[in-house]
Structures are given as structure tokens and as C-alpha cells.
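Newbie here. two chains, one complex. Structure please?
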Amino acid sequence: MRITCEIWKGTDEADGGFVTYEFETDPGNMVLDALETIYHEFDPTLSYRYACGIARCGECAMMVNGVPYLACEKKVEPFMRIEPLRRLPLIKDTVIDRRKVFDHIQDLLPEARDVEEIAQSLQKIDEKTAKEKIENSIRLTNCYECMICQAMCPRYREDGEDFPGPLGLLILMQMRENPAQRTFSKEWETMLSASCLSCGKCMRYCPAEKKPLRLALDLLERAPGTAVRYTCGGYGDARIQEVADYV
Amino acid sequence: MNIPHTQHAFDIVILGGGAAGALAAIQAKQLGASAAFVTKESALVGGATIMAGGGTCTTMSSEDSGETYYNDILKSGQWINDRRLVRLVADNATQALYNLENCNFLLDRNDLKFNGPSSMRTFHQGEGHSYPRAYLDRREALGFCHGLSKMIMRHEIPRFTETIAVKLLKDDAGKICGVVCYSLIDGTYLIFKCKAVILATGGLGALYEETTNSNVLSGTGYALAYEAGTELQDMEMVQFMPLTLPYPRLRRGKIIGMCSLMGPDVKLLNGKGERYMRKYDPEHGEFATRDIAARANYMEIKAGRGTKNNAIIVDNRDFAPASLKRWQDANLFRWRQCCQTYGMKAGNWEEPFEAIPSQHFFMGGVRIDGDLQTRVPGLFAVGEVSGGIHGANRLSGVAFAEVFTLGPICGRFAYEYAEKMQDVSWNEEAALQAVEELERPLSFHGEGVRPYQIKQKLQKIVSGKLGPVRNGAELDEAIAALESLRRDTLPQMTVFDGDRRYNRERLDALEIPLMIETAMMIARSAACRTESRGSHYREDYPEKDPAWVKNVVIRKDGNGAMAVDIAAVREEE
């Protein structure tokens, strides 16, 4: 199959632009295969990031024809416009700087507890709640941290100062649903949920099998006193348009 | 010097972003050391950990004990294991697993009140284990990785992501005084002055064409340690995973799972439709340990009895419904991958599917003492980069048991060492000179061989001649080919572009000399062991030789040449 790839090269408007490559590839190949071909055969200066190749590390997320995908999971198409994820600082070409996101998340994390204290608090939980917490906890931690949610969130800003993005929200819920943790401060919960626009865009593009963000949003909506009005699966294009207009 | 660089000072620098490095960093920091966490990936905790199935073997079962676990590890490792380290792991694995629940995530449990096998959702008996021992996780290793990365953040440990170590620095007395690293992000060098270095750089998957590891495990840690003057042992012991995906290209070599996970009815067939495992292991058949199963699959394919895709066939059509449910439940990722690769029918075992053996783990590595310190004072090693625990073959689920147990222990020993040290004698001149030497080959942009091409040549040599089945003639060829790669091809290496930002060629160019060094150690070590033991199989010496209950030890001698010695196995004190 002959494919045409338009790939963003460079860092900003001043030194960057789209470069086009045309070549033959196997139709079963993934976008990451195509990038590797370009790097090997046409352009040694192409920067792209990946580690596992099997949709686990979440490091190869990028935009293909305007939609975010993991490059190792997305099959090649005859025409592809490949760009880095939006809303995150760019290092070069398709490679975004993920470090800032981790810095913002660092501020959210509560202090560690010691093992004794955890064991005691676990004893107090009844069986039914425990089962529910375990299931929630497993699903919420099934996240690749690929940053697609951050990139798609209309509320998230590069500086991340006032809102650490959907990933921050997910980690908040991971903490809350884990009985072995000191709970999150209520202010954070209120602040985060007030910042969320309930558009569901983060969850819509999440590549993780178990859609951890979906559960996080459901839980947040059910929490008393939160402003999240995301109704289970009820996000629609109209609402997303509304949010897009807001931004 | 006009090469961009920054200088940093810490008590301890941890090299490697897997679970071993993370746990060591967290422990060292908790005790009060200033620690830097250097990882090659952008994900804070990834490495080999994120690729693993998540199985962790502990002695939770009431009938089980540290002693039987210890004996199982020794038996599988064919008695060349370092007894002291095995004892540490066997005795402390269970507590080490529970301790992880302090890392922002919950184990995959049934209930919260009790500890023990019944409170874990899946508890599995793998090949070579006397009792059910493996805790399995529905998230595989994602829970561990992200839990640990939150701990790294919570303890505010300075993180240097997408940074690789390229040279260890020693003072005049031969003690560690620093390490030179290179950042892929902006292409600058980082010079760390430190009292101790914890080497947790993991295995060497990238040396092989087919590997279950992610692409970051390039095996440079072994060569760094070698160059620093420490000893490495049993470098011939490379583990292969019996069943991995044969296609598509990106997933080639990624784990399917061990036979025991697929239930008791699974059959392995060659291209002619014959069951062959009893030929290689009359007692266990399909449920042989990894060394035997991977070699069997490899030999069937090599003898021309594979399928047309050069693979063997996994046939589990006689499965019991409970086995499939258990497989889907405990191995969601693998099941999904099989369905995507082979189609739903084969993914659900209604049809047979193909599989190949691939490189998985490395049992050999840096030789460490009971305090996890190498012969170079201040250089500690933990995880896959260290050698001796698994001997000639690793049992399933013991790698996680090892890192969860020894990771924190290593952090503590490194802290105690750094605490006693007043200050290091720092030679800035030497550090800057090292940077200049490292940069020299990278400033050649003319006509030549690109780094990835050298990497592919290296992989071809290593996969072709240092696979599961070896012989003296091929090993000699491998040594000659590696020597020629270093002598003739390496000087022609060219980096196309001078741009420092995220330049993959510069990274490859820095790693390749180290990768060749590591491959050479495997070849030299394999040529030295004239017997077959565990994962090391020699066609010209197919029998196990009782005189070879010994370790092969490699070090750099006074003239800078590679010295290969034979040493007695280390006993408990």
C-alpha cells in the first residue's frame, strides 16, 4: 500500500512545518512502523518516542488526522497528517514534554502512611465496601498515563497551575478509592471537580482497555457537593461543541 | 569546554527506572539521603517492569516455606546461584509484596481483612514451583509501575527522565565518585558528583532481534560496570521465553504466557502436527521450565519442523471452560493481544495458533556481595543487571520477588555506605575530559554507517549465534564478528544531524560501543562454559558436567583486555 505521511517537524511556528513522505508499506502496519521506516530510510532527523510497542507504556501517543492515538495501536491509512499532542509543551517533531504534567501531579499527592496504620484502617472496612473499593481501585489504576486525556481536555492549560487536568482527576479518584491511603483534602476535590467542564472528551479518546477515566468521572459525579454534571455516557457532540466555543 | 553540560551533586544516584531502581530510590530517600532518579524512559517507572506479566512468587501458602522456595530456586538455577542472595529473596518475598501496598495502590485482592493466598484474587502455581506461589494482577504490572512512580513523586526525588548513564567515574582510590549521563531531551551531558551509584539498568533485550523487553533495555549497564572495573558473572545465561507472538512486526517477540497459565490441556505441536515436548522433558512435557521449553521450541523450528512462518503451534482446543475464564481474567492484556493477532477464534482457543521463543531475561550480570555492593566501592547493583540469584535459569515470578525484596535493601545499604563517606575526592577535570571523549564520535557527520545499521548488524550476530542453542565454532565466529564490528565498523559510525534536541541517532551512537561490549561478554562467557546447564545449551557439550558447578567470572584486566575466570559458587556464610 502506498501511503502519504505529513509529519510535523520542528518545535514552533518559527522553525517548524509539515514535511511529506510517500512510500510503500504493508497495510497491516501501525503508524509506529511507518515512523520507523521514515527514520531508517528517509529522514534520520525524525524524532519520535516509544518504548514498548504493545500499548502499555503510553509514550507514543500522537495526533493522526486530528484524532489522538497510540502510534503502536493505530493502523496506517493512505493519507495521514501526524502531529504531536496538543496543549503540552513540545520538544521536537512528535515528541511532547511530559515532565511538567508529573510536576503538577506531585503537588496533589498526600503524604505516605506507614504499614501499621494501613493495616489498622483496612480492618475497619466491611466486606461489601471492600469489594467495591478493590474493583474500583483496580479499574482506576489501569491507566497508561499516555497524556491523551490531558491533551484533549479543553480546560487544561500548559502551565497546569489551577487545574492538573483529567490525569490529576484520575489520580485523585485513585487515592479516594484506595482504602490504604490518607484521603485527599476536600478542597482539592471541590476545586478539581469545579474546574472540570464535564464534557467527557478525556474519556472519549482514552486508549486504556478499562476506561479508568469513565469510572473516575462517574464517581466524581456521585460524590456529594461536586459540580461535575457529567451523566454516564451522556456526553454529546453538542456539549463538546459548546465547550469548544468556550475555549 | 563548549559541549553543553550541567553539574549536579547528590549522595546517591540511581540509574534505571524499573521497580528495582524506584524502590531503592524511595528507601534511600526515606532514610535521609539525597537521591537522584535517572531513567531512560519518559514514563517514570517503566523498564522491564512495565512489560512483565505481574506474577510475583511468595511463600504465602501455609504449607510453603522459605526453605522450599529457596530449594526450588536453586534447583531451577542448577546450583550455580549465589546462596546468600537466594536466601534473602526466599525469606523476605512475601513481606516485600505486602509492603508495596504502601505505594498508592492496592494489590489485586478478594478482601482487605486478611493476608494470604485466599485473599489474593489469583494465586497460581507456575512451572518449577513446588506450591502455588504466584500472585497475579489483572493490571499486570501497570499497578506496580504507576504506584511506584507516585511514590517517587511523593518523596520529591529529583527525576531525570529520558537520560542514560554513559560513564561511571572513580577517584584515585578506585571508589565511585560520580557518573556522566546524557539527556536525550536536550542532548546535553549531566555530570553527577555522588558518593554511591545504584546500578539498576535492567537487561539486554535490544541485543536480540526478538525480545519480550521494551526497546529501552539495551544492556549498557553491564558494560558500564565492566568498564568501571568490577566483575560480572555467568554472562552466558540468557533466558528465552517459550511462547511469544510471531507477528505483526511491532509485537514480534512479545509474551503470550507460560503453558501452566493456559490450563492442563494445552499441547505444543510442531509444523507436522506432532507433540514433541515429552522428547525434551519426559517428566513434565508442556509444563517444563522455561529453559527446556524455549530450547525445545527453538530446536523444532531450527530442525525445519516448524510451520511455514517458522513457528510452533499452540493447540488448546480441548480446554476446560474454567481454564479459559481464568486465562481471560488473570491475563486480560495477553488475551486481548492474542485476539488482535490471531483473531477471536484462536484468541479463545477454538483454533490453534503459532508462537516462537524469544529472549526474555538475563540471569547473569554484575557480581555483588551480600550487601549488594560490587568490587568497586560505592557501586551497588540490583535487579536484572545484577547476577547470581537465578543461576542458570530463572523460575517464573521470581524476578518481581527479587526486585521487590532487594530494591529497598539495596537502597538501605547504599545509604549506609554514603552516610559513612565524608566527601568524595572530586576531579572535575577528569569528568569534563570524559564528556569530551564521549562526544567525539558524535561530531562526525560525514559519509558512513548510521547507528541503527550497526545496531541491526549487532542484533543479527547475537540472535544468530548466541541464541538458545550454541556451539564452539559459532561462538568463535560471534567473537570474531563482534571484534570486527568494534574495530572496523564502529570508526565509520556517523551521526547525520547535529541537532541536539531528541536526536535518536546520538543516543544510539552513545550506546552502541557499550552494547557491543556486553555482547562480547556473553560470547566469551558462553565459549568458556564447556557444558550444558539451564539456559546455556552447547550442541558440542550437550551434557551437564558436575565439575561445572562454578561461576564464569569476567573482568577487565590490568592491560584493558577481557579476562575470563572460573570461580567457586558462593555459599551462605
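Moderator note: Chain A touches chain B through 64 residues (CB under 8 Å). Chain A has two domains: 2-96, 99-246. Thread marked as resolved.
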